[in-house]
Each structure stands twice: as C-alpha cells, then as structure tokens.
Amino acid sequence: MKITCFFLVPGLVLLAASRLLAQQTFPLYSGTIPDSKPSEVQETSITLANGGVRISNVVQPNLTAFLPAPGTANGTAVIICPGGGYTRLSIDSEGYDVAKRLNEMGVTAFVLKYRLPNDQSQPDKTMAPLLDAQQALRLVRQQAAKYSLNPERIGLVGFSAGGHLAAWAGTQFAKPVGPNPGPVSVRPAFLVLMYPVISFSDSLRHPGSRDNLLGKTPTGGQVRQYSNELQVTTQTPPTFLVHAQDDKTVPVNNSIVFYQACLRHGVPAEMHLYPHGGHGFGLHNKTTKDDWTEHLKNWLDANGWLTK
C-alpha cells in the first residue's frame, strides 16, 4: 500500500491563506440593494488593447480585498474608488494596481465596484454612488476584526470621478443616506484625491461627470450640493491631493479649490501639483521621475497611519 505524506510549512500555509483571502470579492449588501429597481441593465466589462479593464452598468456593487504580505499589515485600510466619469470604472489602473501598491506599505486595500448613475436601474441615480461608498465604509468597519484593522483608520482613495465620490463621502457623512443607516460611522479617517472631480460649477466641472450624475439641467441647489469644495467643514478628514497642471479633462483648479477650502476650515491637507501629466495617469506620471506614491507613503507615516 502506498502512503503519501504531506508536510505543511506554517509560513506557506499563512501565505496561501492570505492569498485566498486577498482574492476575495464580496457583495456590499446582504439583502435588497437600496435605491435599485428591476431592469434589463447588465454589467459589461471590456479589455482594452493595452490590457486595461473598463466596467460599466454596475448592478451588483461589491468590494475586492487586497491584503498585505503576512506580518506587514499595520491595521490601516483604504477603500479605492476608481474613476471613469460616472459612466465606467477604470478598475485596474485606478483600482487593483493601486491596491497592490498600498499593500506594499502595509495598508489593506478594498477596491469598490460602485454603481454608476442609471435611471433604468435606480429610482434616484443621484444617490446610488454615495450609498455604495457609505456602505463600503460601514462594511469594512464591521469586518475590521476579520482583517485585523483599526476601525478608526479606514480612509478613502478616489481617482477622477471616483475622487468626486470620495470627496462627497468625506464631506457629507454627518447624515448618512439610505434607509436604516444604523450606528456605524461612515466618516473616512482620511481622503486621498487623485486628479479629482471636485466642483460641479460651470467653470470647473467635468461635463460628463455632472451630466451623468445630475442630468443636463441640474438646479442651482443641486450644483451647490454636489460641489464638494462648498461642503468642507472643520470635520472634513485630512486630505492628500495630486493633480497635473495640464489636465485638460478635469481642470487642476478642482484640487486647488478643495485645498483652499481645507485651509479655511483648518483641515490638514497636502497637495502635489505637477506641471505635466495630463489626466488619468494612475500610479505613474510618465512626465517625471517623481513618484507620488512615495509622497503618499510619507504623508500616511507622518500621520501615524503606517504604525502598527
């Protein structure tokens, strides 16, 4: 009789378990999804020639967890909101790739596949993205023990329109949206805003983001409500901003007016502006050898978020 023996090396077991957990994707909502209605809308995913992945028509929002290597996690987590003008999600370059870089800093990362505004599948398309961002914060806090996280050290990272969503969640958390929000805080500990859409004013708006979220004829009240620089208070979380001066898609003044609002209200903020780089450069601004993620690492460290 042939007997096969298997010897388990503890470190390898932990690594294998970590990888399994890191690849876990789980739904935002365990039951009925708020602000949703039956429709024929179906999620679509396309892979570009350069390998990039774009997701549209999200109906079932979810989170994908990326965990640091065993023994390196520091208890801080981020929820990443990819950009795409509120019409698609650049889920790889502004999601998965960023999560892996944050893992190298010991930060646990969750990529948020949030619903994009859609009249066919949502009774109120102007609220669906914020509902999902707030639920993501709530859910990660509720699962903090599972991932060995400090529930007071969960931040939001947002790119482009995802930056609008992150800033939106970071300025309007006092009154959570949706039915029965519960007692769990939806205030992020900090914000990282990458070439963000901030303002919906006529002079600063990214037309696609505003039109997709509010329609082509928003009221003056809606424009003010969704212009995040006007919603900053003393309770707005510390903020880190990055933008390029030659951004022709989202004017650099979006970041500048948010930074100025932080200054007026005494909110700690750090901003890095590049003369070149355009829009959507993700992890790497190819016009410079400077690495904005190193500045982010220093900022996180200076605020104690990289300390175990």
TrEMBL record:
GO terms for molecular function: hydrolase activity, acting on glycosyl bonds. It holds the Pfam family BD-FAE. Residues 1-22 form the signal peptide. It comes from the Bacteria. Coiled coil: none annotated. The keyword Hydrolase applies. SUPFAM superfamilies: alpha/beta-Hydrolases (SSF53474). GO terms for biological process: xylan catabolic process. Keywords: Carbohydrate metabolism, Glycosidase, Hydrolase, Polysaccharide degradation, Signal, Xylan degradation. InterPro entries: AB_hydrolase_fold, BD-FAE-like_dom, GDXG_lipolytic_enzyme. Residues 66-260 form the BD-FAE-like domain. This is 1,4-beta-xylanase. It comes from Hymenobacter sedentarius.
